[in-house]
Amino acid sequence: MKIGDLARRTSVSAHTLRYYERIGLVPYAVRDRSGQRDYDASFLSWIEFLGNLKTTGMPISGMLRYAALRAEGGVTGPERQQMLEQHRDHVRAHVAELQACLLVLDKKIAGYAADSQRIMNNDAFPKRRKPA
Fold this sequence. Notes:
mainly alpha
């Protein structure tokens, strides 16, 4: 598949795919007779995996380290597993932090809702007239 097809199927821009190739995050694609990149299906899953790492906050340096280990083959499996386990622990900690922040937001929103209801209830009463 051409770079535009890969970009559409992975939601990663062609520019980003070229960048990933240039820095070694993605292996060089085979070129067709006209010199255009021609990707096979294995690139789809790799790009999607990289997207997951990016979404979960792994820095490019970590992704590059993982890609380099992957390129070395199965002998690096235990090291890659350890990398992913450490990253998973980081992600879990971040999720817990975000959940705590959500609770704070929920409480704040509930406070505004209570204020709004109190204001509406008070507005339901007739206004007092000043004594003459």
